[in-house]
Amino acid sequence: MKVISKQHNSKMCMMCGLDNEYGVRAPFYNMEDGSVMSLFQYREQHQSYPGRVHGGLITAMLDEMGLRAVWAKEGGNENIWGVTMSLETKFRKPVPYGVQLIGRGEIIKITSRFFVTHASLMDMDGTVLADGDINYIHLDPKAISEGVVIHEEMPYLIEDGVTEIG
After folding, report:
1. Most CB contacts within 10 A, which of 8, 89, 130, 165?
2. What is the pLDDT of residues 128-147, one digit of tens each?
3. Distance CA 144, CA 156 (A)
4. How far, in Å, CA of 136 to CA of 82, rounded?
5. Residue 142: its pLDDT value, please?
6. CA atoms in the 13 A half-sphere facing the CB of 65
7. Nearest-CA neighbor of 117 among 91, 92, 135?
8. 70-71-76-79 Cα dihedral, nearest 10 degrees
9. Per-residue model confidence (pLDDT) at position 49
10. How far apart are CA 106 and CA 74, in angstroms?
């Protein structure tokens, strides 16, 4: 599937933060079908059992994919924010670290007040390792965290030449 554009990365987010030494540092791409996708690797620091990623970090990536799906669906508009109300994760197969994975998020329903997304983590063969349904409430960044200027926290847009994922 064709990449339309790349989304910004933050400084310290556990999933996308480029300055977070323990973070995943995942890139995110707006796709031609209105979904968001990522090519990323968990590292050994993200393990629960040896060789396996911690379930909380799997769920965190699904949550990240869900919010970013809204940005992708809205033509790359990164000014839409929300807070997770609920997230149901289904762990289908063990998620390994140290190997390339694919993340995908898509909008199921969006209203002026809420949005519902579905996100998946897959191996490079397309086998779903974990997926989830996430419900968010739209909130202005000022309501989420007083004093935070979102675009100061999301300064990185580093093009990497990825034009297709699939």
Report:
1. 130
2. 999 999 999 998 777 777 66
3. 21
4. 6
5. 72
6. 33
7. 135
8. 130
9. 93
10. 11
Task: Count other Cβ atoms within 10 Å, centred on residue 45.
Answer: 12
Task: Give me the residues paired with residue 136 across strands.
Answer: 84, 115
The tokens describing 111, both together, are: 């209203």
Structure tokens at 12: 């310290």
- When pLDDT is cut at 50, 70 and 90, the band that residue 80 belongs to is confident
3-state secondary structure of 150: helix
CA distance 69 to 77: 10
Contact 57, 46 (CB under 8 A): yes
Q: What is the mean pLDDT of the chain?
A: 92
Dist CA 39 CA 65 (whole Å): 12
- In the block, which residue shows the tokens 């197969």? 93
φ and ψ of 93, to 5 deg? -150, 155
